[in-house]
Amino acid sequence: MSRCSLLKLNNSTRHVWIFHRPVRPGRHRPVSVLRAMDWLLRIALPSPATPPVYAAFLKSQAPWALDRCHRFMIAVFLLCSAQAASAEDWKDTAQIHGFLSQGYVNTSDNRWYGDSEEGSWDLREIGLNASIRPVPYLQLSGQFLSRTAGRMGNGEIGVDYALLDWTALSNADKRVGARLGRIKNPLGFFNETRDVAFTRPGIFLPQSVYFDRVRDLMLSSDGMHLYADWRLDDAELMLQLGVGKPLVDVNVEATFLGREFQGDLSSLGPVWMGKLAYERDGGRLRFALSGVIGSLDFQRGPDDPPPPFLESGDIDFELLIASFQYNEEVWSLTAEFLTQEVVWNDMGTIYPSRNPGQGYYLQFDLRPIPQWEFFLRYGERIPNTNDRDGSKTEMATGAPAHTQFAKEWVLGARWDPTDSLMVRAEYHHVDGAAWLSNREIARKDTERFWNMLAILVSYRF
Amino acid sequence: MVCLLFSRGMSHYIVLARSIGNPRLVPSKLISRVSLVVLLGLLSQPTSGQALAANFSAGVETINRSVTRALFYMRLREWPNGIPVKVFVLPDTHPLHVRFCRHELGLLPQRLRRTWDRAVFAGIGQMPEQVDSVQAMRERIASTPGGIGYLPEGGIDESVQPLEIK
């Protein structure tokens, strides 16, 4: 028996009362859309009163009109009207937040975030977001973002995220729901808020794992995510699974293709991502495993190098990040490890068939006095583990060997003079140029050993 | 534990000092006792001193720690009876907020703030409402359906429902 036939009303049950639906004896009461609407309306209305408008409407309708879709739409419409009647309640849930960060970068060599050898102010992030909860189980949020990052970001205002978050089930033990729209990719500990300076573990995210060169590909995607949280005794387990269309920009082209071609690089099919996180004791111990799988399609342009050097083909990429954090009151230890695989399919002879890459970092944070934090970090990035010292790449392409690895030590400090203001300073010593963007500096012009001093001031509200 | 170690250490020192034979090294009984009392005074942790309080419409009287965390992490948004949760907090530097975070949630205010930021700036959560004083906290909890916050132990009155953490 189909669900629709179970929901059809015969003459004896024609008059349906939302909270007092009669059930014929001997029949099992089906889990029906009516009960779902029951639940929705009970939450929406301040008192469990049968909405007379709805009851009267149902009385007037013939059974054929009360099929599943109609009932659901009626419920949603009434929900919205019910909320409009008590407009003050849901309007009170509206929140607006934002941030403004400005940084200064000075490097001994190379170019990072602009002309950094001369001192670059091309580090700016401005964001404004809004969110509202018309009912407890729905949140609508969106954020505009403008990011200036040397030649990797031109300060254009874009939609960072815009989503609808629906919590289907929420109780003391678990929470299950879905998100729809442009959603930040839940990769590692920091990807979801990577442009928000006061949520980062330093002025820049550890480039060994969160390389800015392919930021847009990793940042967010347009699609749908499902999430589930389970609350255990003193721990929490969180799962997120998502599918979406990624954003592909010139930085992604430059990274996956090595340079910009006339041809077009676009997403091929959906990108799948997932994150499993475990937190114990309110976040004293945190583990996470996250990953993304996707493909890009490349169409050669007429002015691009001809076959067999360059051909139209596709690129498959997979990233997996394992994350760990331990937090004590005065100190914390964070470690993340990335493994990635990029496969060039039928792209021509200038591309290897595959590059397995790795990156990791280890960071120690100290909070000896209120408002102050200090950290020490070591990170390494190897884009191709088959060529750790870069010698094979140098022989094949002439690009300097040191562009195939980057090892860094970072020492930094953070001061929060007020709740809204943050000041950061850090010093990097880097061996290698793997995470420099070839849009900012040609590989042959990079120096192997370089240092960086960076300062950032950030205001939030 | 520290007091026990201190007193044992003190007694060992006294025995050693006496064995050396220099009377000036041996602290008098008065000094030993005073130092122990002072140490006890310095080390004594303040009693937890704060309690959870909720609006009566929430319909709960006891709560467990994982639900407390879920509420203050803004992950649990409605009470079992369907009333939306409204969380109130004091500023990050307010001593009551610091004590509450440490004792009931087991973390520093900065970590709680970062948990909120990670959700708010990814579009998947909202901030709790910040109030300026304990008096304002009490008034908002009492007058907001579904409200929850924390007050000093002596500050709970009949206008709010105290919640016992199991």
Structure description:
The complex is a heterodimer of chains A (461) and B (166). Chain A has 461 residues and is mostly beta strands. Chain A has helices at 3-7, 33-44, 52-60, 68-85, 87-91, 215-219, 250-257, 391-397; strands spanning 95-107, 120-135, 138-149, 154-170, 174-184, 220-231, 235-246, 264-267, 271-280, 285-299, 313-327, 331-345, 354-366, 372-382, 406-415, 421-432, 449-460. In chain A, helix 2 packs parallel to helix 4 (68-85). The longest helix of chain A is centred in the first third of the chain and has 18 residues, at 68-85. The relative contact order of chain A is 0.10. Chain B has 166 residues and is of the alpha/beta class. Chain B is built from six helices and six strands; from the N terminus they run H-H-E-E-H-E-H-H-E-H-E-E. A six-stranded mixed sheet of chain B has the order 2-6-1-5-3-4. In chain B, helix 1 (2-20) runs antiparallel to helix 2 (29-43). Chain B is elongated, with a radius of gyration of 23 Å. Residues 41-46 of chain B have low confidence and may be disordered. Classes of the chains: A mainly beta (461), B alpha/beta (166). Chain A binds chain B through residues 42-43, 93, 95, 97, 99, 127, 129, 131, 133, 135-137, 139, 141-143, 161-163, 165, 167, 170-172, 175, 179, 183-184, 192-193, 196, 198-199, 229, 231-234, 236, 281-284, 327, 329, 367, 370, 416, 419, and chain B through 64-67, 69-70, 75-78, 80, 82, 84-85, 91-93, 102, 105-108, 110-111, 114-115, 117-118, 120-127.
Nutshell version of this structure?
Chain A has 461 residues and is mainly β. Chain A is built from eight helices and 17 strands. In chain A, strand 9 and strand 10 form a beta hairpin.
